[in-house]
Design a protein that fits this description.
By secondary structure, the chain is α/β, with parallel strands linked by helices. It has a seven-stranded mixed beta sheet with strand order 3-2-1-4-6-5-7, sandwiched between helices. Helix 8 runs parallel beside helix 9. It is globular, with a radius of gyration of 17 Å.
Length: 244
């Protein structure tokens, strides 16, 4: 099966080369999947795209899309559409490029697709998964209870981690969704795409992951993203109650 790992980036010059080297080391050990990577760079001023272009000279499985619109959701929408049009993937993988998601976990994320699942999630909130121990209590509570809130509001209680950014999704399911109608720009995209896929019959599965704090660079999560997430959650609630 053909797999494209979509990697949104903004100012990841400190991480991207080491991360791609680590990913391709793991890819070489994975059987039954033909895997490439698509970096969707939001015009990073720190030269992230230039590093990717240099790496492309020695690896023809690295692709680059220079995106004009900021935001995680916009990057994924652009990346998914580009990959489906140009790279013929059977599976699209979402993944952070700052080592928050261990490349080694790709070995566990992909096989459930071959077992008939459509949407495989790297979960922090099932047995064996975790968030960083050194997080402040308020951040742990925001992460845990924000996820519970999202699951309840969107009617996705069967999924333990509906805001995870480490996922493998069958393209067949994504082709049933009009990505242009997903009116979210930031991190709320994660809940919306899961909601849409489940609504279209996706069979979900979760594997445990340890979410790791980035060592280099800065988090891109903003107050604007949090506001969008909250507003979007209630939009999904109303849609679920009155339209579905």
């Amino acid at each position: 099966m053909n797999v494209t790992i979509v990697l949104p980036t903004y100012n990841e010059a400190e991480n991207i080369e080491d991360f791609l080297n680590a990913v391709y080391k793991v890819i070489a050990e994975i059987k039954d999947f033909n895997i490439n990577t698509l970096i969707v760079d939001d015009k990073s001023p720190d030269g992230t795209a230039e590093i990717v272009k240099r790496l492309q000279q020695t690896n023809n499985n690295i692709y680059l899309l220079e995106n004009d619109t900021r935001g995680l959701g916009n990057a994924y929408k652009a990346g998914f559409k580009y990959a489906i049009k140009n790279l013929n993937p059977d599976i699209l993988v979402e993944m952070d490029s700052d080592f928050s998601h261990s490349p080694e976990k790709l070995k566990e994320l992909l096989p459930p697709i071959n077992e008939g699942y459509d949407f495989v999630i790297g979960s922090r909130y099932i047995k064996g998964g975790s968030i960083p121990e050194n997080w402040a209590l308020i951040r742990k509570m925001n992460s845990k209870y924000g996820n519970i809130f999202a699951r309840f509001i969107a009617g996705l209680m069967q999924v333990k981690d509906c805001t995870s950014g480490f996922r493998a999704i069958r393209t067949d399911i994504l082709n049933k969704i009009d990505l242009n109608n997903l009116d979210v720009n930031g991190y709320a995209f994660q809940m919306n795409i899961l909601y849409e896929c489940v609504h279209h019959g996706a069979k979900t599965y979760e594997i445990p992951i340890d979410f790791i704090d980035r060592v280099k660079g800065q988090s891109k999560l903003s107050i604007k993203d949090v506001k969008e997430f909250m507003i979007n959650s209630f939009k999904l609630l109303f849609r679920r109650l009155f339209k579905n």
